[in-house]
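Chain A, query sequence.
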Amino acid sequence: MSQVLLIDYGASRIKSILYNSIDDQPIALFESAGSFMKYGNYSKIPGSFFSKSLILHLDYYSDKISILRKDCDLKIYLCSEMHGFCLLEQDSFNSTFYYSWRFKEKSTDSALEILNNRGFYSKTRMISRAGLPVVNILARSLNNELGTNSTFLTLPQLICRELGDHYNLACKTLLHSSGFYTDLGAKEDTLDITGIDLPISFPSPIDDYQKPLGFIAYKSNQYNLYLGFGDLQAAFLGSNLAQNEILINIGTGSQIISNSRNNSTFGLEERPFFNNEKLKCVTHIPAGRFLNSWCKFYDTLNSNNNFWKELSQLTYEDLEGFNIDIKFDLYLDSESEYFEQIDDLTSSNSRITPKVLLASLMISFCNQYLSYLEDSISKNSRIILGGGIPNKVPVIADIIEKKMKRKVRIKKNEHDLTLIGLRDFINRGS
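Chain A, predicted structure.
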């Protein structure tokens, strides 16, 4: 008996699907709270949280089918949010913490200046920003807080170490997001990247995706763990887009993504994909987490209001019926978690209704995508919206379609794009 468990470690939710075989309909689905929902803005997360979450999912499925049989070949395929890391230092090897992209060390500005002066973008095709592992680790070194003989782990490696063992292998999609690897996932010398020969051992990029990254032990059995994709690449793969299609993925976070062969020029960054291909992308766009920050504020305006319900019912005709000149600043402060600022409130528009507030919010929300797309996508490019937010709030598609003057399609899927991407990758035998 062969069984396949697909699991996506997202910041808000950890989602999984269990199959008897990858071609069958799923046996069951399960989700649990992600690190952000569990710890909020606390960005230094105990490594045990992720391993315990995997056990939680396995426990859920063990009640549905017999995954504990000795003849059961259970394979676990994983993707996760990017730009996080665990650094195991020799003097604290038993204390494992995962640092998410929200974590920022002291001396971040100095580290960013060093990286930019050393041509970080040209080497990695990634914009240097606070929260990248390379920035945090370099900052730690500048503060004389970096231990000796340290080991760098991605999230899948950390889970394997917590529950079994890892093989010092990692997927290029996650390795590149650390800032220590080129845009195709090749390892760069830390001296070349940072100007400092950092005493850290890094995983080797995996080329054969049929090889496990490690194994986990569960109720006296051992199961191999595979892939460890970045969630951006998994979502794009799950979208199954044509070369001339551009994905706007809107979930907890948001990205604009296309294959690098697309003639559009919007992509500020590149990410490694499969078969030595690359993706063009814009990342770190405020999305679901930003909208949730306004939910409580909106619902306090009137006890009868329901933020998400009313957003889902908002139409483009509603927007056309209002004189909207209120702006939401989605990038208030890079250190701000909730981006809470409204601009251009005046005596004439201060008596806003809840619906006008929602309409103004949606205009500002969509303008962030339009600012990247309006003058930079080719004439034959089609725009596809993926993720939970567009399916929940269809007016987003209407706004972008009207402003861009081209058809915008919402990709409707029974499951999350990341899990579909994992499934499709396995099915195609890559």
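Residues 246 and 383 are 5 Å apart (CA to CA). The chain has two domains: 2-232, 243-412.
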